[in-house]
Automatic annotation (TrEMBL):
It comes from Acrocarpospora pleiomorpha. This is ABC transporter ATP-binding protein. The keyword Nucleotide-binding applies. Keywords: ATP-binding, Nucleotide-binding, Transport. InterPro entries: AAA+_ATPase, ABC_transp_ATP-bind, ABC_transporter-like_ATP-bd, P-loop_NTPase.
């Protein structure tokens, strides 16, 4: 049997003032699949990811999460309705945007876990240590705040956070842009493992070659249009 769709974008469009950032995009991402998106700066990649993560609603079209609409209308307002908290976890293009600047990193990394179950501070610190080790940050001071870290360290903390609570999907916007090649290789191995466990991944990168090696499918974006993939 085919794997279930985790995220579906059905003809989604998004406009900002005079800019058509995204035009009628269609995409289905299934359990365990890794889909890569590449394209020139300003082509709409981050916009597409914000819609897939239901951070903002499309102007037209629909995003389905786990087969159900991500947004419902009530009293003329749109309300976000993910199947469960943390169903889709975003990794933002700016590594600091994924983290609360006031919080120690153990708290940011384990917040997705704390939202779905009770966990003591000691348990959360132990879990944060494990999650950070998986992204190559085993020696990091758990009490540090984001401003005390390098950009590449923040990027890996954001990855650890996104993966902490077994999300159904991760949408990652250039998640390895600040990392050296050896560290990138470790993170890509981790993404493969996570996908093998059933999580769906959508990865945006300017590195088309890397995407072609890592991903099951690769889709180019041009001027707001998500084009059919070559594979
Ligand atoms: N919040 C916003 N307000 C106004 N315009 C926006 C907003 N977000 C995106 N845009 C516009 O939408 C278009 C697509 O932007 P987007 O950030 O999605 O591109 P991108 O492909 O992620 O680019 P990059 O590779 O530089 O990150 C751009 O023309 C941008 O100026
Ligand atoms: Mg972007």
């Amino acid at each position: 049997m085919a794997e279930q769709p985790v995220i579906e974008a059905v003809g989604v469009s998004r406009r900002y003032a005079t800019t058509a950032a995204l035009r009628e995009a269609h995409l289905i991402v299934r359990e365990g699949e890794i889909v890569g998106i590449y394209g020139a700066s300003g082509s709409g990649k981050s916009t597409l990811l914000r819609l897939l993560a239901a951070i903002e609603p499309p102007d037209t079209g629909e995003v389905l999460l786990g087969g159900a609409p991500a947004w419902v209308r009530r009293y003329g307002m749109r309300h976000r309705r993910p199947p469960r908290p943390g169903y889709v976890m975003p990794i933002f293009q700016n590594p600091f945007s994924s983290l609360d600047v006031r919080w120690p990193i153990w708290r940011s990394v384990t917040e997705p876990v704390a939202i779905i179950r009770r966990a003591s501070g000691a348990e959360r610190r132990a879990l944060a240590g494990e999650r950070l080790a998986a992204v190559g940050l085993s020696g990091l001071d758990l009490e540090a705040t984001p401003s005390e870290l390098s950009i590449g360290q923040c990027q890996r903390v954001a990855i650890a956070r996104a993966l902490a609570a077994a999300p159904a999907a991760v949408v990652a916007d250039e998640p390895t842009s600040a990392l050296d090649v050896t560290t990138v290789a470790g993170i890509l191995r981790l993404f493969k493992q996570v996908a093998a466990g059933g999580t769906a991944l959508v990865l945006v990168s300017h590195d088309e070659n890397m995407l072609r090696v890592l991903c099951d499918r690769v889709r180019p974006m041009k001027a707001g249009v998500l084009e059919p993939g070559g594979c």
